[in-house]
Amino acid sequence: MSPSVSGSAARVAQVLARIGAVRVTTGQPFVYTSGWASPVYVDTRLLMSEVALREELMELAAEHLRPIIAARGINAIVGAESTGIAFAAWIAARLSLPMLYLRKKALGWGSAARLEGRLPDAPRLLFVDDVTTDARSKLAAVQALRETGASAEDVLVLMDYAIYPRIPAMQAQGALTVHALTTWREVFAALEGLPPEAQAVLQAYTADPVAWSVEHGGVGA
């Protein structure tokens, strides 16, 4: 796993904190679509409306993806419906690459029923989404892309929590590499003015997110 595609993870974390993308609760927990219960929710969609900061982070992403794309021979960018679409489009424009998006559910028939856009010849794809916890949904998306006959080994996210256990097969077989602009630990460090209660909750969560989830009604590992 690659914890960060750049040496600017702290800067990305500062931007997310600055725009109010990090929501913290000491009461009813957030429950992610993956089933994890958490005291924090990072809404990267707010970045779409912050033009200067968005441009800075997308340029950073493109800059650090260039050597990865060259090494892998990646020839198209695929965004996740829905948040990943905008980020994928901005990154693809900077890299002068074709862009597609992957639907959550198939529309039509055939192996490409979830894909919108046209695959290039001998497709080698980079999948783009906003955030990942345990990367299960990212592996499922990449597997869907592979069913079209494409090669897909890499995922870019704006933030990887990087504190949840990964799928054993993903680690052992090297089926997927997750590249991230920042991680939860950098984002946590960038938060300022947290009341003591919230600070304590986030510290407990960061130390053991699985136990925290189970204790608050979410899934376990």
Automatic annotation (TrEMBL):
EC top class named in words: transferase
Its EC number(s): 2.4.2.10
Record-listed orotate binding positions: T133
Cofactors demanded by this protein: Mg(2+)
Keyword terms: Glycosyltransferase, Magnesium, Pyrimidine biosynthesis, Transferase
Catalysed reactions, semicolon-separated: orotidine 5'-phosphate + diphosphate = orotate + 5-phospho-alpha-D-ribose 1-diphosphate
Keyword Glycosyltransferase in annotation: yes
Keyword Glycosyltransferase assigned: yes
Associated pathway: Pyrimidine metabolism; UMP biosynthesis via de novo pathway; UMP from orotate: step 1/2
Binding-site residues for 5-phospho-alpha-D-ribose 1-diphosphate, renumbered to this chain: R103, K104, D129, D130, V131, T132, T133, D134, A135, R136, S137
GO MF terms, alphabetically ordered: magnesium ion binding; orotate phosphoribosyltransferase activity
Subunit text: Homodimer.
Role, per record: Catalyzes the transfer of a ribosyl phosphate group from 5-phosphoribose 1-diphosphate to orotate, leading to the formation of orotidine monophosphate (OMP).
Protein family per UniProt: Belongs to the purine/pyrimidine phosphoribosyltransferase family. PyrE subfamily.
Name of the protein in its database record: Orotate phosphoribosyltransferase
Organism this protein belongs to: Rhodovarius crocodyli
